[in-house]
Each structure stands twice: as structure tokens, then as C-alpha cells.
Amino acid sequence: METDSQIRARLAELEAEHRALDAAIGAMHEQSSPDLFAIQRLKKRKLQLKDAIQRLRSRLIPDLNA
User: Fold this and answer.
1) Measured distance CA(31)–CA(59) in Å, rounded
2) If both were cysteines, with which of 34, 46, 55, 65 could 21 make a disulfide (CB 3.0 to 4.6 Å apart)?
3) What residue spans of the chain are helical by DSSP H?
4) CB-based contacts of 11: which residues, under 8 Å, 6+ apart?
5) Is 49 buried (19+), middle (13-18) or exposed (0-12) by CB count in 10 A?
6) Is 49 helix (H, G, I), strand (E, B) or coil?
7) What are phi and psi of 63, to 5 degrees?
8) How many Cβ atoms from other residues are within 10 Å of residue 21's Cβ?
9) Residues 15-51: pLDDT tens digits?
10) CA 37 to centroid of chain Cα atoms
11) Which tens digits make up the pLDDT trace of 53-64?
12) Which among 41, 58, 53, 46 has a CA at the least distance from the CA of 21?
């Protein structure tokens, strides 16, 4: 089981990669003839990262027994 600090470190890594992909996608769109297939691959990876980030964030929320 990962500790909260390990989860937060992994979360920071994924968020940094997500931001980098966002910048790369933006730069590719500005090219005179963008590689649409490459952009599509990057967007798919970005969505995967978003899902992973959400899963990690939910693990940091404590379970409340009502």
C-alpha cells in the first residue's frame, strides 16, 4: 500500500506530464501542417493521465463511515 506522500509524489509527476502534453499539443496545432495523428495520440495519453490523476486524488480522500 502506498503512503499519502508517495501518492502525492506520483500525482505531481502525472500532473507535470499532463501540463507538458497540453503544451506539446498547443505547439503542434500552431504548425503550418500539424500531424493530426500525433495530436490524436497525445490527446489520448492526456485523457489517460487525467483519469489516473482523478483515481489518485480519490485515494487521498479519507473514507467516511456514515
Assistant:
1) 39
2) 46
3) 4-29, 36-60
4) 53, 56, 57, 60
5) buried
6) helix
7) -75, 135
8) 19
9) 999 999 999 999 999 999 999 999 999 999 999 999 9
10) 19
11) 999 999 998 877
12) 46
Quote the distance between the C-alpha of residue 48 and its chain's center.
7
The distance of Cα 51 from the centroid of its chain, to the nearest Å, equals: 7
Task: Give how far Cα 11 sits from Cα of 5, 6, 7, 18, 25, Å.
Answer: 10, 8, 6, 10, 21
For residue 34 the three cell numbers come to 500539424
Q: How many CB atoms lie within 10 A of CB 11?
A: 17
Closest listed residue to residue 28, CA positions, set 13, 38, 18? 38
What is the Cβ-side half-sphere exposure of residue 15, based on CA atoms within 13 angstroms? 10
